[in-house]
Amino acid sequence: MTPLSSTDYDAIRLSLQVSVAATLLSLPLGFAVAYLITFVRFRGKIVLEVLVNLPLTLPPVVVGYFLLLLLGKHGWLGSLLNEAGFRIIFTLKAAVIASAVVGFPLLVRSLRIGMETIDPQLINASRTLGARWYDTLLTVILPLSGPGLIAGSSLMFARSLGEFGATIIVAGNIPGVTQTIPLAIYEYASSPTSEKMALSLCLVSVVISVIVLFVHELMARKTARRD
Amino acid sequence: MKCLSKIIIHLFCLVALATSALADNINLSVAASLKEVINELSDSFAKKNSGVKFLKNYGASGALAKQIESGAPSDIFITANLEWMDYAKNKKLVDTSSVGTFTYNTLVFAGAPGKAASMQDLVKLDTIAIGSPKSVPAGEYAMEAFKKAGIDKQLEKKLVYAKDVRECLMYAERGEVDGAFVYKTDALLAKQAKILFTVPKELYPRVTYPMALTVAGAKNRDAAAFFTYLHGDEAKTLLSKFGFAVR
Amino acid sequence: MQLSLTAEKRFGEFNLSTDFTVSGDRIGVFGISGSGKSTLVSILAGLLEPDSGEIVLDGECLFSSKMRINLPPEQRRIAMVFQQHCLFPHLNVKNNLLYGYKRCPAKFRTIDFDALAAVLKLEGLLERGVTNLSGGEKQRVALGRAILANPRLLLMDEPLSALDDSLRFQIIPYLKSVSEHFGIPYLFISHSLLEMRLMTDSVLVFEKGCMVEQATSEQLARSRMGQSQVGYINLLKLGRPSQLNGLFAYPWGASRLLLSVDAERDESMAELSSKDIILFKQHPEAISARNLLQCTVRSLFRSGRKIGVELDCAGTTLIAEVVQDAVDELGITTGSTIFAAIKASAFRILPG
């Protein structure tokens, strides 16, 4: 085992930062989208479903390139933000956005599976007891989506930890700024002298993933037992 | 049943054909930056020597070295830097006696016209793309050049590290960065970005593309013939057309 | 309570088309499954929008396709008790009970929480989770939750069908007493004629998405006697039994009935099928049936191929069924005196 360098510690910190931020940012939107798809009848729902799942099937590189077209200096959103003094590209924000987009379908999927197990009669009961739709959403659907929220956010967190393809395009591979664990490993692996360093980071990455999955399993069991 | 057995026989024939064809193929493992020139060279060689077939594998030098080490079929190995050739030599993956230089490249700064005209102008820019110095030789050379020019500290915050030279160039093409340090041969392929200046020779080591026959390639007559062709005058003419330096 | 409802709703093969006005506080909706009862309930509660129609409850329009009125469920003040209890699994008993109460505008809050908890005997359960309550307890909580929402109408959608027989009769007194006690009119939906008779006064009969009949539950039971395998079920209110020669003697109105089972209660309800009553023109000298009652024929009615005979036994009523031939042979006419024999084992005491 080669001891980790300071840029490695940076990479670990950045990876965790990106994963936490991407997961937290996506949760409200993911919850809203899952709610729409599960409970609300509207035209063009299938279009929304396809759009949401698109990043799951597209290569992350393609997602990254689209994000670059969108958020780049001359992208239609990026140019607006640039005028407002906001730079997204080549910053940690870009890494967070890339991870959020790539992990979003996984989050929505898990949330939907969770929501579909909620008895629709419970929702009806709450409505007839005087709750408005948003009241029902907050007091019945949200608390009963617990297992889906846990599954979705841990999956999304894990996916964000591993995100590479989209990140390296929109965020670049800048040590201490945007270089997350997978990017650092990639860099090490492509240099003849630092194979061992790559292995050390790989091990760190395995350890974090195992912890996340363990926590996920434990929490899933806990909520299963409560029912 | 008859139909199925027919299909199986056909499949067998196909596999047999494919494996027999393998014997006469020349397997190339070539650094990605040489893709265009090697494509033309192999085409013209195949025209003159009918029956010769090329299987070309372009990629990062490190990835190629690892593949050969893991037993991927390869007759000729051309890398973008000396380190990975040394690695291959140490691991006894190449025929040591065949190791030589294929060509040279030069480092340039490419971007939108007017952004910079010399190394000293770089400090005025906002963002500059270079390859990750640890993994991309062009990035490593760019860093050396900054140090020798004494502007490394000023540029530190302006640098965007890309995963390879082509990504650097893509950023420059799209205007996401003010400019990028790339090889002259890459910059010549760009549409928007123009070569703004060539990095002075004394600021970085010469960009060398070493070439060797692998242990397997040394036994392949066709491969050896193509290897000789790559050293020949025709190859040199084509290389300079693409912007490589041959001497 | 007065409710008038006109509604058309079509989905796929099923088509609900109904138009009725009903008033009263104990209304039944009767029909087999698939007759449109549940659709009607959803439409009333505002959970399902009819294709066209109008719903007016106590003078207030809840829905009108013409005037484009469609009050959302939370504004209709119509609470529901579902077939499955539908308690919120993440809330304890108390918070389940208070769910509707908290959301009810203060001006409508008339029901006292403690009084309700006492009537439903829920005081000891308030802090418990709802997932490990018994079936009967769950349904009592569900009932309490609906009542505490202070609705102007309570919809009970087959609230007993998920319970076993003994629990069902334990819950019925709660259902009745709660709405009486707190003055909440209800619409009781069921496919059980017996439940209709225990719970309702006026019944709307649904068939294939249409209301086909509006009658009292008693009328309904009599008119179905001829088609029913069990005949008409007499419901007898009995007093505390005393032991007599290996049987149990129950006071019943001014008479006494001998039954082979013991209820050990001050008051119980017994079922007796109209098929289990044998009529005699004269007093038989000796018979094996242990009950022989002298009655007066109050009326005769036809149901299918059977004739129902309404008997007055010292002020209490019994319905017996016979065929036309027997009516002729025995010369049964209104006002004639007749003897009814019933075996001690023909009675079934309702659990409760």
Can you walk through the features of this model?
The complex is a heterotrimer of chains A (227), B (247) and C (352). Chain A has 227 residues and is an all-alpha fold. Chain A has helices spanning 6-39, 45-57, 60-71, 76-83, 92-116, 120-128, 133-144, 146-162, 165-170, 181-189, 195-226. The longest helix of chain A is centred in the first third of the chain and has 34 residues, at 6-39. The model of chain A has no long low-confidence stretch (mean pLDDT 90). Chain B is an alpha/beta fold. Chain B folds into two domains: 2-104 and 208-242, D-Maltodextrin-Binding Protein, domain 2 (3-Layer(aba) Sandwich); 107-198, Periplasmic binding protein-like II (D-Maltodextrin-Binding Protein, domain 2, 3-Layer(aba) Sandwich). Chain B has a five-stranded mixed beta sheet with strand order 2-1-3-10-4. Chain B has a five-stranded mixed beta sheet with strand order 7-6-8-5-9, with helices on both faces. In chain B, α2 links the parallel β1 and β2. In chain C, strands 7-8-9-3-10-11 form a six-stranded mixed beta sheet, with helices on both faces. Chain C has a five-stranded antiparallel beta sheet with strand order 2-1-4-5-6, covered by helices on one side. Chain C has helices at 37-45, 73-76, 93-103, 113-119, 135-148, 165-182, 193-199, 217-223, 324-330; strands spanning 2-11, 14-23, 26-30, 52-57, 60-64, 69-70, 78-81, 153-157, 186-190, 202-207, 210-216, 233-238, 242-244, 247-252, 255-259, 268-273, 278-280, 291-303, 306-313, 316-323, 337-342, 348-349. Chain C contains nine helices and 22 strands. Chain C has 352 residues and is an alpha+beta fold. Chain C folds into two domains: 2-223, Rossmann fold (3-Layer(aba) Sandwich); 233-349, OB fold (Dihydrolipoamide Acetyltransferase, E2P). Classes of the chains: A mainly alpha (227), B alpha/beta (247), C alpha+beta (352). Chains in contact: A-B, A-C.
Quickly describe the structure.
The complex is a heterotrimer of chains A (227), B (247) and C (352). By secondary structure, chain A is mainly alpha-helical.
Greatest chain-chain contact: A-C, 19 and 27 residues
Total strand segments of chain C: 22
Count the domains of chain C.
2
Q: How would you sum up the global shape of chain C?
A: globular
Radius of gyration of chain B: 21 Å
